[in-house]
Amino acid sequence: MDSHSYTAPSRVKALLVPLGNVSEVAFKNYVEKIKSSYEVRLVDVTPTENSLFNPQGFPQGRVIYDFQLSLNDQESIFLNDFEPFRKTFVVIGITDSSNISHNDLELLSKHYKSSITHSIIVFGDGDHNDMEHKQIFHQSNKINIETILCDITGLFLNDLASYLSSFQHITLRSPGTIGSNDRIKAIEPSKRKRISSGSSLSISMSDSNNPKLSLSSSAERRQSKVRGRQLKILGNLYLLAGKYNNALKELNDAVPLLRISNDYLWLGSTLESIGVCLVMLTFLGVPYQMPSSLNQILHTSMTIPTPSATPISTPRNSMVFNGGSSSTGTATTTTTTTTGNQSSVNSTDISRYTTPELINLISIKVIHYYEISQNDHEDYVPQLVFCESILRFVKFMCVVNIGGGFNQTTIDHIVRGKNIRPKYSNVIFDKMEIVKIANKILTFQLKTMDILSQAKIYTSLASVFGDLNLLRKRSFIIRTLFISLIPELSNNDQYNNNNGKKTHNLSELLDTILSIYGIGRSPESLILDSYSSRWVQLHKSILQLCIIICSKIQDYKKIVQFKSLLITRYSDSLTDNEQSKILNEIQNICKEQDYIQFNYFDPLILRGLEVLKPINPPKKQSNTIVSDQTTKADPFLYNPYAKPLVTDETYFVQDEFMEFQISVQNPFAFPLQINDVQIESFEILKNFFIIQPKSLSVLNVLVKPIKSGVLKISEIGLKIFDCQLQFFKISSNLKPEFFNKLKKTSKDLNVSILENYDENILQNKIEDKVITQELTLNVINSQPNIQLINEPEHIMLLEGGSQTINLKIKNNSPILANHLEFSVWDSTIEPLKNVLNNKGLPSNEVYEIEYFLFKNPLTIKTEIKELQPFEEKTLEVELNGKRGMNQVNLILDYGHKLQNQAFTRRMEIPIKIMVNPSTDLAGCDILPLVQNVDSKSGKVWSYINEKTSQTDKNGKNLIISDFALFLIDLRNVWNKTLNLDIKYDDFEINESIVPMETKRILIPIKRIQLDDDNLDIVPSLSKKQYILPKITKAEDQYIKEAFWYRKEILKKLSGNWKIGEITGSIEFRGVRLSQRMLTTLKTDKLNIKIDVKTESQDHPVQTKGLYKLIPIDEFFTINIKIHNNTSRSIKGVLRNIPMASNFGSIDRRLLFNGVLQQPLLNSIKPDETLEFKIGAIILEKGEYEWGVLIDELDSERSHIARDPLKIISV
Question: 1182-1192 and 1198-1200: which strand pairing?
Fold first, then answer.
């Protein structure tokens, strides 16, 4: 509670002390529980034996406790008889020990003799031996703390009656006659006049010469003084006991006695106590009669400003707040005369004024009497009393203004210390009035007071100016306080004890000053505070003064804390030399004082954390792939287009080194020395680094995970300089939400500023300010590690050739490698892929490129299924010469398979290879065969003659035109003679080609029959989706025919070359078929055969080579047979085309019977043969040719007889 609250004189001071072996944490918890029940209702208190303070006399009353943990009233003990509320009346021992007895209570009473009530509260549910003692209370689940405090209050009220009896036989003296020497210098009349004129409310401060108030003798005057002082003390004790009606009565009776005896000091204190009674009765809502003494004291005419309407503006009866009306009560009718904004009021009635106005009138009169008392050499007001009275008054005015009037919220704040929300909707007191009254304190010689009293007065005064939003005045007061503290501390040895109560209180004071000024904000932790405006230079000077003060009292821990706070929050206002100096001073103090440790200053030192991807990280294989591994028909097949079998997620291996990149900032002017780095679940290899001043550096830290699983890294431990190890969160960017919150005001912290700072730094509380980063790593169990023992040498091959090499691999780990998967990569893959990116390639060329793309240049002859720990095995590998290849990589994906799950790691074995060309297909052609040749002419004709003497699988006799001649031009591009062995179906031929020579090789092939109308599209080896080409239908048909007819040839065509013991295969995929070659290669869709017969059976037609010999002027018959080899019916027009050798007109040379062109009456069905005949006679000798053409009616196709009839007429 605020010690300078207006109702502070109504609170009972109670000291809470630990007893027994209660721990500090438990004691604090118990204290908080007791403090929560600081208000005790008299109706709940058991009636006392003494009727004076019996709670039944005023059950509405309250006893309000001000619980404290230390005695801080030693400097003002001489004021206890003058203002009893300063005295610590109650001492409560707190313990949780079951061994508490009456002896402990006696020790407590003996140690705190000045207190009147001593009691013990025992917390816990254990057994207690002395629970029957009326001053020892047991708090458990059955008895709550409120009940115990009610019982303690009953004891206090009984003891208070005994305490009061001690005043009956003693003379009450003023504080100045007891021990106070803080006499205020008498104020000159001119100054007093200025002070009095400081308020717009003017009251006649001089008492009139009223005969009724004068006494006949000095003895009567002295007797009135003694009686008045006793009534005043009784009223004060009633006020503490919560019997506010009795207190008001006694105080009212004391006023005229003190007034007629000119006892201005006690009169002023009595008036102030009356004001407190009025506020407390208003707080309780109890009707009360206006004290008649006020009408006498506040006599003559008064001029006051017309107040603004307030909720409480009725006579002093039961109050209804927030606009309610009061109940009717006795009030004297007044006569008023209103002039302008002021009212002239008759002195006989002041009941029409509101409570704040009465407090204002009373307080101004109190200040007046205190000033008059300064002329008395004995009964003068002490500085402390005067200053605190003014502070209570100005704080009352501030609270009423801030709370929007004298309402229930405002009263709760004044009495109970509850928080109040600023309204400023109904300002009663003028701001400058408050400032003028508060400035009176600055006219006093405060330096004569003890340092703690000075500090309290200055801090409260600064708080008042802060409430009035007078920041410069507040800063001036704080600066004045610090200036007065430094010499006082230097001359007072009692503050040099770091464990003393004085130091503790001074620390609280410094902390309060920082909080009031705004240094309590936490820009290192809160985004709102980091963007709040600050008076940097003034904050810096205040912190430096705090450092000086702590140096005077040798509080080294506070020195380190203040210096650390200065460099954390105000480093931008420090020069480079100042920063370095502060660091050196902190380090020197910590070296000299072993018990002190300091924390590093920058909570945002970590700006990022990245993990470098390992060179060969393990990857997770899917369950399907692992389970199907043993059932693959060809586990060595390499598909460059297949989707990766591993996920994109990176996995790390337990007990294997990895590398972190930690981004660290150093915003200071001195280099940082990082002596240790710690990351949970990781072993650090290197942990010493130097960070240059004002830089952002990246630390490469080699680490090793010591456990497996999903590891999350959200903070890293750093030991910087000689600081203790601190864990810092990884900060990335400032939170963007602060832009929406800038208009809000950050509240000052009520907790210790330094403790809050240490907590922010040590616990790295930065979540409210920045977006923190968390790195998640998947660490798997230890994995096998396979290495290559022998490096393969460079290899030279001829295209089509092969060579076998041996590779030794070893498992250099204690983990079984039971998942081994081989694949191959060669240097031709990327160029071929680049060629495939050309979107304009025809489908047959795409197929050809893909064929070479998937062609495997390497074969493993030995199968390895697993490698035992530290086992070594040999791989026998056969390399095949692939055109254009200069390197081939054998890829091994290995791992430890466990329950259909495997993490594989890849090992690549590069093999440098040079492939030289062996043969080159220079060209090819296909020629039709129309005439048999003698078998002696060569192996080719011997093969053809043999075949034409046979029948095909359908029993049809083969003729020469059923075959074609395939011409291949092969060139030897090597520097040695090549022996060739070429096969086509069952035909085989052997040839030798000398270096750089081209030889044509003849291969007889049977013409191929395919259904051209139903040819499939060209397939894709990469399983790509078919896209309709942007070419004509004829072009598309040609591509399909060229592909499928070529494929039929390559099925039967093969060849090998040999150079000594070296052998290899011949690559025939360079064969390309033109349209003419396709026409030659195909079997006829309509097989048209033309023959001739004469009418003379005695003279059959003779043959001479390819010609038929027919005499002139002799009739002959042209016989035409048409056979349908397709799967469809054909309907068309038959056209006979006779021609002479000289291409002249044939009309006069040949006569024919019928027509040369005629439609086919019936369509030719599949595998059906039709026969047509036409008669003719040749009139002139010469060479003739008879051709036949059939045009289909439903299409543009034409069929020409492959072998036209050749005739020589003789």
Answer: antiparallel
| Rounded CA separation 136/146 (Å) | 15
Question: What CA–CA distance (Å, rounded) separates 1051 from 1042?
Answer: 14
Distances (CA, A) of 1168 to 398, 566, 1013, 1124: 122, 110, 19, 6
- Amino acid at residue number 832: L
Cα distance between the two ends of the chain: 147
Encode pLDDT of 916-957 as tens digits: 999 999 999 999 987 666 556 678 888 888 888 888 777 777
pLDDT of residue 611: 92
Q: How many CB atoms lie within 10 A of CB 842?
A: 17
- Contact between 732 and 688 under an 8 Å Cβ cutoff? The reply is no
CATH number of 1084-1209: 2.60.40.10
Q: Which CATH number fits domain 803-909: 3.40.50.20, 2.60.40.10, 3.30.450.20, 2.40.40.20?
A: 2.60.40.10
- Tokens standing for residue 122: 């025992």
Sheet containing 136-139: give its strands across: 39-41, 62-68, 11-18, 88-95, 117-123, 136-139
Q: Percentages helix, strand, coil for the chain, rounded to the nearest 5? A: 35, 25, 40
Amino acid identity of 1027?
A: I
Summarised one tens digit per residue, pLDDT across range 952-961 is: 777 777 888 8
| Interatomic CA distance for residues 450 and 204, integer angstroms | 35
Per residue in 283-313, pLDDT tens?
A: 999 988 888 888 878 763 343 333 333 333 3
Closest by alpha carbon to 529, among 491, 484, 562, 568?
568
Query: Structural domain boundaries of the chain?
Result: 8-166, 183-325+340-444, 606-780, 803-909, 919-1080, 1084-1209
- Alpha carbon 295 to its chain centroid, in Å, reads 70
Q: What is the mean pLDDT of the chain?
A: 83
CA 435 and chain centroid, separation: 49
0.90 exceeded by the pTM?
A: no
- Residues 898, 781: Cα–Cα separation, whole Å: 11
Quick check: 698 pLDDT over 90? yes
Distance, in Å, from the CA atom of 401 to the CA atom of 399, rounded to the nearest integer, reads: 5
What does DSSP say about strands 726-734 and 715-720: parallel, antiparallel, or unpaired? antiparallel
Find out whether 895 and 618 touch, Cβ atoms under 8 Å. yes
Comparing 89-103, 553-567, 729-743, 910-924, the range with the smallest average pLDDT is: 729-743
In eight-state DSSP terms, residue 1008 is: B
**Fold held by 8-166:** Rossmann fold (3.40.50)
Judge if 8-166 and 803-909 fold alike in CATH terms: no
Which of these, 1118, 1100, 1124, 1129, lies nearest to 1156 by C-alpha position?
1118
Q: Is 331 exposed, middle or buried (0-12, 13-18, 19+ CB in 10 A)?
A: middle
- Backbone angles phi and psi of 402, in degrees to 5: -65, -40
DSSP label at 251?
H
Query: Rounded to whole angstroms, how far apart are CA atoms 809 and 870?
Result: 10
Query: Tell me, what amino acid is at 465?
Result: F
Q: Which residues, 6+ apart, have CB-to-CB distance to 306 below 8 Å?
A: 341, 342, 343
Q: How far is CA 810 from CA 542, 688, 871, 875, 888, in A?
A: 71, 37, 6, 11, 21
3-state SS class at 272 = helix
Q: How confident is the model at residue 676 (pLDDT cuts 50, 70, 90)?
A: very high
**Gap between the Cα atoms of 46 and 606, Å rounded:** 63
